[in-house]
Write a structure and sequence with these properties.
The complex is a heterodimer of chains A (400) and B (497).
Chain A (H helix, E strand, L loop, with lengths): L8 H14 L3 E4 L14 E4 L6 E5 L4 E5 L4 H10 L2 E2 L8 H4 L8 H7 L6 H4 L6 E8 L4 E5 L11 H5 L7 E9 L1 E2 L3 E8 L3 H12 L5 E7 L12 E8 L1 H15 L5 E5 L1 H12 L2 H4 L4 E6 L5 H10 L4 E7 L4 E6 L7 H11 L2 E6 L2 H6 L8 H14 L15
Parallel strand pairs in A: 1-2
Antiparallel strand pairs in A: 3-4, 4-8, 5-9, 6-7, 6-8, 10-12, 10-13, 11-12, 14-16, 14-17, 15-16
Helix pairs in contact in A: 11-12
Chain B lengths: L9 H4 L2 H11 L5 E2 L2 H5 L15 E3 L4 H14 L2 E5 L15 E5 L6 E5 L4 E4 L5 H8 L4 E2 L12 H7 L6 H4 L6 E7 L5 E5 L10 H5 L8 E8 L1 E2 L3 E9 L2 H13 L6 E6 H10 L10 E9 L1 H17 L4 E4 L3 H12 L1 H8 L2 E4 L9 H15 L2 E7 L4 E8 L6 H18 L18 H4 L2 H14 L17 H6 L16
The chains are: A alpha+beta (400), B alpha+beta (497).
Chain lengths: 400, 497
């Protein structure tokens, strides 16, 4: 069977109309770098790679638009040349999934959503997606949002497509906010404290006026630092004079909690946060990897609860001051889903199975199960875009 | 009246007594407002051009009561219009003569403040400013600050995705909330998000925010609170015309500076605020830019210098830097008074809300002036210059025959101009009824059909706030089966309101 590869939006719409009529499911791909995320979907592959190219970039307006198949690396290089970036710090899943780094398209990025360490200050992808064009599961070409910074005209469908894993529509063009890159960065390390105390220090930094843009905790011996003590890492970004001042203020704030301070200058700081963005502490470990989102103050309770229950953790680390926990387990047929969901059930939040074999991802709930009313609503929203379930069938839920 | 609402359904009107009796079984007697005089107080929101008497006003105070009312409305097939503080500028909570007006003013409690997780759980009727007041002693605040913040409710802010003067740097409501509890039509409850930072599966919280009360009734909100920046200073920049002012705004942002606030006013507004309450704005300026820089003191001082330089290079005729907190507030005083000040020269005004690509500002202002002349009306301009959100205030006199229609026509032309240059109809006030019939300027029928299908996923019977946002009413069954090909609708002659 030849792979579907529409050359433009019109051909894509024809292909999706035909699929909608026949009920034959389709898997959407760009660079193919994220096919292992979510449950395994069924259907013929449809490549969006031909829909390519930046269509608008006005640095002084802080806006960039590109067709969905545009390589993310191309967009990042273009922004970099103008001193700008996608401030939500998109994760590169390549290293974690055993693929090359630097792959992936902007459309694929929107499909998985999320945000990196700077999420705590700058928001997630959802907060930076200004608008899009797409072809829905009905084969209709639809646009939503716009290219301006502030827009409440009609429903904010950008929020829906961000992180929808292609289950609502095939994106054809996306528009993002492009923000100035901070002039400099440095990281303050607070080392030698236990995990609970380290996380409390990170939360204190989070509630301080010193605008940290990264708040992570690396347990001892964890990549990439591999220190023999726990290390709480606090990133500060901005003009050099401001970063230096805030570093001093932060040290004063956190002094008296014990532990030692160390400062990572610009290059080391940037390397650390790139590694944390890409989940390096768990990427280098074999095993099943989960990404868990909880209230920051519950991060430690989550890990403690898992340990109490005897979970076989190979590696873990915390981002977002404890609000994001990456876990890597010894492989198990259910990927420890039952245990993890029980602990999360007590705390609130959700867990997503990011790395496991296709068989495991087909057998367990990759995404957090929802209460009946919310599950039914989610399905109705899905069907409002894709009534015949032709897009990424099975990706999010076995039922659609 | 040029605006048409869906005709009241006789079937509903005929069952009013039954509806009242059943509401009284759910709510205490004083929370069911049936008397005509008392209902009159609810006949409009802050979009005062149009009024309608609600069938009944219901004022629940528990989530269970809201659920029971939503279930009752579904069972009796009665319409519901949710209302917070009634400060919508687009008629988002304008009542329907055959609908229950569901007032959430009794949901006025702050349920929890959680500094550890930098958030607060609040009820929808809590006033926007009250959240900041509740956390200010600890040095925190809630960032979105619409001009109506002393009156508007957080629930209404969620419904409209309200903004304010600090949006460019700190985001709108949607960027500052973490969780919602929502009662759906029929009475079911869904909880979206929580104290954790990111959503999973579809971001229904993001969808609910700015959905203008068409998808569900919000009964609890978890908002993010931010630590107040330790320092803030203002700059007051005067220019001989709008163009250099607009260039200056662009130059600041091009330099990589995102100010906490970046506002602009034209000559008509400057004159109006100086007449209303003098606050020392330069009288030779035809355009005024107010810049607020916040952060640590060292950073603020550094950036103040940079912005001052940029302003001089762009030909500013006045550059004043605040040297005290009182002076900074003084700079803002005129901007904050702009709306009441303009209403004094009005006597009435219609406030528009388009957003445009910032670089198109001079072109749009020139175009707006020409349009105003054509319609024989005056326009005063206030902009959130940093994010391109314009608030042209169209001055008219409601006592003059035909002036309302002229003002509306000019407003529509201005918004068409915004869309034509790549902008949008509304940046922060919402579509409501005010801009409903202009949705076709921005979206084609296929775009709108998809949005309406999303509405159907929440409210298949179309009972929740109908007549708002969408220029046509369609039954969901019909939407589901409809195939739209190349922009042509199967029923192009479908009646509009």
């Amino acid at each position: 069977m030849t792979r579907l590869a529409p050359r433009d939006e019109t051909e894509l719409a024809e292909a999706l109309r035909a699929a909608n009529a026949s009920g034959a499911p389709l898997k959407l791909t760009g660079a193919g770098s994220k096919t292992q995320l979510g449950r395994p979907a069924t259907g013929e592959e449809l490549s969006l790679a031909a829909l390519e190219g930046v269509t608008l970039y006005e640095p002084e307006e802080l806006v960039i638009s590109a067709r969905a198949g545009t390589p993310l690396a191309e967009i990042e290089a273009l922004l970099e040349a103008h001193g700008q970036h996608l401030a939500f710090e998109p994760m590169d899943y390549g290293p974690l999934l055993g693929l090359a780094a630097g792959q992936g398209t902007i459309g694929g990025l929107v499909a998985v959503g999320g945000g990196g360490p700077r999420r705590i200050k700058a928001g997630a992808l959802r907060d930076h997606l200004l608008g899009f064009r797409c072809v829905t599961g009905r084969g209709e070409i639809v646009k939503s949002g716009g290219r301006v910074m502030k827009n409440v005209t009609g429903y904010d469908l950008s929020k829906l497509v961000a992180g929808s894993h292609g289950t609502l529509a095939a994106l054809t063009e996306v528009t993002f906010k492009a923000l100035p890159k901070p002039e400099t960065e440095q990281t303050l390390l607070l080392t030698g404290l236990c995990e609970e105390t380290s996380l409390a220090a990170l939360r204190a930094a989070s509630g301080s006026p010193y605008e940290p843009s990264g708040l992570a905790l690396l347990p001892r011996l964890t990549a990439p630092l591999r220190l023999d003590v726990n290390a709480a890492a606090i990133r500060l970004e901005g003009p050099a004079i401001s970063v230096a001042r805030r570093l001093d203020d932060l040290r004063a704030l956190l002094a008296g909690r014990g532990g030692d301070f160390e400062i990572l200058p610009q290059a080391e700081s940037a390397a650390l946060w790139r590694a944390l963005r890409d989940a390096a502490p768990v990427a280098g470990q074999p095993g099943q990897a989960w990404r868990v989102s909880v209230a920051p103050s519950d991060g430690h309770a989550l890990v403690a609860g898992l340990r109490e229950a005897g979970a076989s953790l190979l590696a873990h680390f915390y981002d977002w001051a404890g609000g994001l926990v990456w876990l890597c387990f010894e492989p198990a047929p259910d990927a420890h889903a039952a245990l993890l969901r029980t602990v999360i059930g007590r705390l609130g939040g959700h867990a997503t199975l990011i790395r496991a074999s296709a068989e495991v991802r087909a057998a367990v709930d990759v995404f957090q199960p929802q209460p009946p009313a919310l599950a039914a609503l989610t399905r109705r929203v899905k069907e409002s875009f894709d009534p015949a379930h032709i897009l990424e069938r099975g990706r999010l839920r076995a039922e659609f | 009246m040029t605006l048409l609402m869906p005709a009241p359904e006789p079937e509903i009107l005929s069952r009013r007594d039954e509806l009242l009796a059943r509401l009284r079984a759910i709510l205490p007697a004083q929370s069911v407002i049936a008397d005509e005089t008392a209902r009159r107080a609810y006949d409009c929101d802050a979009f005062t051009m149009y009024r309608a008497l609600p069938l009944v006003v219901a004022l629940p105070e528990t989530v269970a009561q809201v659920q029971a009312i939503m279930a009752l409305a579904q069972e009796m097939n009665v319409k519901i219009v949710p209302r917070g503080a009634g400060t919508s500028l687009s008629g988002g909570s304008m009542p329907l003569e055959d609908g229950i007006l569901l007032g959430l003013s009794k949901f006025n409690r702050i349920l929890e403040i959680d500094y550890e997780n930098r958030c607060a759980r609040v009820q929808p009727g809590v006033q926007n400013l009250a959240i900041s007041k509740a956390v200010e002693a600890e040095g925190f605040y809630y960032a979105p600050d619409p001009s109506s913040q002393i009156a508007c409710s957080i629930g209404g802010n969620v419904a409209e995705n309200a903004g304010g003067v600090h949006c460019l740097k700190y985001g709108l409501t949607t960027n500052n909330i973490l969780g919602l509890e929502v009662v759906l039509m029929g009475g079911e409850i869904v909880r979206l998000g929580g104290k954790h930072l990111d959503s999973e599966l579809y971001d229904l919280m993001g969808l609910m925010t700015g959905s203008e009360g068409l998808l569900g009734v919000v009964t609890e909100i978890t908002v993010r609170i931010l630590r107040k920046p330790p320092a803030a200073r203002g700059l007051l920049l005067g220019f001989s015309s709008v163009e250099p002012g607009a260039r200056c705004v662009g130059a600041i942002i091009s330099r990589g500076i995102i100010p906490g606030g970046l506002e602009m006013m034209d000559k008509a507004t400057i004159d109006a605020v100086e007449r209303f309450q003098p606050c020392g704005y330069p009288d030779d300026a035809a355009a005024l830019v107010i810049v607020e820089l916040d952060g640590t003191a060292a950073e603020v001082d550094l950036l103040v210098g940079v912005v001052e330089q940029i302003a001089r290079a762009e030909g500013a005729t006045t550059t004043k830097v605040s040297t005290s907190e009182a002076e900074r507030l003084q700079f803002w005083a005129g901007r904050k008074n702009a709306f009441p000040a303009v209403s004094c020269i009005g006597p009435d005004y219609l406030c528009m809300d388009g957003t445009i690509p910032r670089g198109k500002l001079p072109e749009v202002l020139t175009g707006m002036e020409a349009l105003a002349r054509e319609h024989g009306l005056r326009v005063a301009n206030v902009f959130h210059a940093g994010d391109g959100n314009l608030h042209p205030l169209i001055l008219y006199d409601a006592s003059i025959d035909g002036d309302i229609a002229r003002a509306e026509a000019l407003g529509a032309d201005i918004l068409r101009l915004c869309v034509a240059v790549g902008g949008v109809l509304t940046g922060e006030h919402g579509v409501g009824v005010e801009k409903r019939d202009l949705m076709g300027e921005m979206f084609n029928e296929v775009d709108l059909a998809q949005q309406m299908r999303v509405k159907c996923a929440f409210d298949p019977a179309g009972r929740l706030n109908p007549g708002k946002v969408f220029p046509t009413l369609r039954r969901c069954a019909e939407m589901g089966a409809m195939h739209v090909v190349a922009g042509a609708m199967p029923f192009p002659d479908l009646p509009r309101f």
